[in-house]
Amino acid sequence: SPVPDYLQQILDECGGDTSGATADYIPELAAADPDLLGVCLSTIDGTRYEAGDAEVAVSIQSISKPFAYALAIAEHGLDHVLQRVGVEPSGEAFNELSLERDSGRPLNPMINAGALTTHALIGPPDADAEQRFELVRQGLSAFAGRELEVDEAVYSSELDTAYRNIAIANMLRSYGVIDHEPMDVVAGYTRQCSVLVTSRDLAAMAATLANGGVQPSTGEQVVERSVVRQVLSVMMTCGMYDAAGDWMSTIGFPAKSGVSGGILGVLPGQVGIATLSPRLDDHGNSVRGVQLCSRMSSDMGMHIMEPP
Ligand code: GLN
Q1: Which of 5, 48, 165, 230 keeps 20 to 30 A from 95, CA to CA?
Q2: Is 185 known to be catalytic?
Q3: What is the whole-number distance in angstroms between the Cα of residue 114 and the centre of ligand 1?
Q4: 62, 96, 116, 280, best to mutate for ligand 1 pocket (most atoms within 8 Å of CB)
């Protein structure tokens, strides 16, 4: 197949760009190897193509958010989740305290305020922090088609410096948007962000979304099609934070970035896409990841607004 050669070629072409910087507000991420560069595609029948560091594991960070959102909807139904978290792009950075004025409802599940709320929704009302996290870990693993684990060093490093997320969680608690102890929610959400994934895992998770919720390798229907539709819609409008409009108009498929340098993209009905490169731009999106996705989109006609 010419695909791996093509993927290696675009890695070679984008590889020289060392602009941007690794996230430094989480000490353990600042210490990550900035030169990692990988790409992986997984079709909905489970065929995989990859090049570069596709087997290096990093913490999933914000790429966990659409999947936790999917799990919350699958468990409680969309109406219930919408009462707590909206679906409007915030146009602001991922760690902004964007809450609707009167209700205190976070604008969407892709910013931290919305993701903390989504995390708190998972599991039965009397679940403790550990049970909530375990449900999330199992859910993420089902999307990936293998058991995922936590990077404990990243977890404690982020929790030690989680002042901003603690502030956001306290605001959410004061508005009654979350009912749990704010610190428990921050700890659980931080653990969710610390789950280790390779580009292969991310591509498999993306392929599960591309495949209407059915994991291509295990055949498991992880969530219903209607849940996937909701998740991809929100990824499309809010997944790239304050660069979402630029991303949608130029690259044109729903995607989610994470502060460890991953980008996950979905071409519905076709393929899951993952890139990894830790240096980030001002929006917190991977510099070379954006370039790789841009190249693949134009070379392979992946913009979903373009007629075939
Ligand atoms: N764990 C990170 C945080 O809450 C996730 C942010 C991200 O990946 N953009 O700040």
Answers
A1: 230
A2: no
A3: 12
A4: 62
Domains 3-58+198-299 and 62-193 share a fold: yes
Q: For residue 9, report the distance from its CA to the centre of ligand 1, in Å.
A: 30
Cα distance between residue 87 and residue 32, in whole Å: 33
* Residue 256 among the catalytic residues: no
CATH code reported for the domain at 3-58+198-299: 3.40.710.10
Domain residue extents for the chain: 3-58+198-299, 62-193
ipTM: 0.96
Q: What is the pLDDT of residues 201-246, one digit of tens each?
A: 999 999 999 999 999 999 999 999 999 999 999 999 999 988 999 9
pLDDT tens column, 95-110: 888 788 878 899 999 9
The verdict on whether 259 is a catalytic residue reads: yes
- The CATH number of domain 62-193, selected from 1.10.1760.20, 3.40.710.10, 3.65.10.10, 3.30.160.100: 3.40.710.10
Nearest CA to ligand 1 atom 6: 62
Cα(183)–Cα(194) distance, integer angstroms: 16
Q: Check: CB of residue 15 under 8 Å from CB of residue 288.
A: yes
Amino acid at 82: L
Nearest atom within ligand 1 for CA of residue 194: 1
User: ∠ at Cα 42 (266, 152), nearest 5°?
Assistant: 85
Q: Name every residue whose Cβ is closer than 8 Å to that of residue 300 and which is 6 or more positions away in sequence.
A: none
Is there a contact between 158 and 28 (Cβ–Cβ < 8 Å)? Answer: yes
Mean pLDDT by 10 residues, the chain (308 residues): 92 96 91 94 97 97 98 98 94 83 90 97 91 97 98 96 96 94 97 98 98 98 98 95 92 97 98 98 95 97 92
Q: How far is the CA of 62 from the centre of ligand 1 (A)?
A: 5
Q: Which pLDDT score, from 0 to 100, does residue 59 have? A: 97
End-to-end alpha carbon distance in the chain: 22
The residue to mutate among 28, 29, 61, 156, having the most atoms of ligand 1 within 8 angstroms of its beta carbon, is 61
